[in-house]
Fold:
Amino acid sequence: SQQGEEDPQALSIQEGENATMNCSYKTSINNLQWYRQNSGRGLVHLILIRSNEREKHSGRLRVTLDTSKKSSSLLITASRAADTASYFCATDATSGTSYGKLTFGQGTILTVHP
Amino acid sequence: DAGVIQSPRHEVTEMGQEVTLRCKPISGHDYLFWYRQTMMRGLELLIYFNNNVPIDDSGMPEDRFSAKMPNASFSTLKIQPSEPRDSAVYFCASTLSRATEAFFGQGTRLTVV
Structure:
């Protein structure tokens, strides 16, 4: 079963606007990661935030994590047409029997119009 | 390193045939994951290995699916017999250690007719 669930499922914005995607998960995690997938390609890692961190930045990316609400958000500022892709959150389980298990949400399809 | 390498990139086969997908992880990575991606079900984790040992295969859909990792540099995912509903993109990924960045291969697009 999928651990993370992203919303919205699809997001369409104009170039220059900010894009915010959310991820909710169910069980305790060690960290949460965000990935990007261009059509027909493999996933590419964007950023990792640990369970004891609340916010992290990388270039135009800002990720927040709220472990009490079991949710995370990915903000892309000043979006560009090249940001058009699917974005996934992934969680790493903490339970002993699933040590190291990395599961992904359904993803958000982001379309940035020039 | 050339990254995670999967082969073949595309596979078209007839229902009932055996299909073998291959993956070479990044050298030195301890974890290897097999995922299946479809429009309907998204990205599903099928099985993962730690130091060549299968840890969790609860995502393997049926006994028709099997995976092996005979050594640290090679893994296979086999479907026998294949069915049209197995059509999907299959990804392999590896990580240096637990809870670190996953590196994905380009995927194998499988079509079973």
Observations:
- The mean pLDDT of chain B is 95.
- Chain B touches chain A at residues 4, 31, 33, 35, 42-45, 48, 50, 55-56, 91, 93, 95, 98-107 (CB under 8 Å).
- The first strand of chain B starts at residue 5 and ends at 7.
- Residues 47 and 56 of chain B are 6 Å apart (CA to CA).
